[in-house]
């Protein structure tokens, strides 16, 4: 995962990233590798994919990010 860049660390600063109003807890997600991801900008669909299409599996991303910052229940990791 480490490629010498700072994109991952820059997008995941502690206390950063207001989100909402729709968030769910881990117990509501049976398989984090099978989540749909969609992004709309001004009513236009700009991205449509799944977590299965990510380069690195969700568990690997969590393991990696936890090496340089403390992760707590409810934290969100931005990947793209």
Kindly describe this structure:
The chain is of the alpha+beta class and 80 residues long. The chain contains two helices and two strands. The chain has helices spanning 7-10, 58-65; strands at residues 36-41, 44-50. Strand 1 (36-41) and strand 2 (44-50) form a beta hairpin. The two termini are 13 Å apart. 0% of the residues are buried. The model has no long low-confidence stretch (mean pLDDT 83).
Key features of this structure:
80 residues, alpha+beta, 2 helices, 2 strands
Task: Map the helices and strands.
Blueprint: H1 7-10, E1 36-41, E2 44-50, H2 58-65
Antiparallel strand pairs: 1-2
Our count of domains comes out at 1
Q: Which strand-content bin applies to the residues?
A: 15-25%
Tell me the helix content.
10-25%
What is the residue-averaged pLDDT?
83
In short:
This protein has 80 residues and is α+β, with helices and mostly antiparallel strands. Helices cover 15% and strands 16% of the residues.
């Amino acid at each position: 995962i480490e490629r010498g860049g700072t994109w991952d660390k820059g997008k995941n600063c502690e206390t950063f990233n207001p989100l909402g109003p729709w968030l769910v807890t881990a117990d509501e997600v049976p398989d984090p590798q099978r989540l749909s991801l969609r992004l709309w900008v001004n009513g236009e669909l700009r991205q449509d994919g799944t977590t299965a299409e990510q380069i690195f599996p969700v568990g690997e991303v969590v393991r990696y990010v936890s090496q340089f910052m403390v992760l707590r229940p409810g934290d969100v990791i931005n990947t793209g």
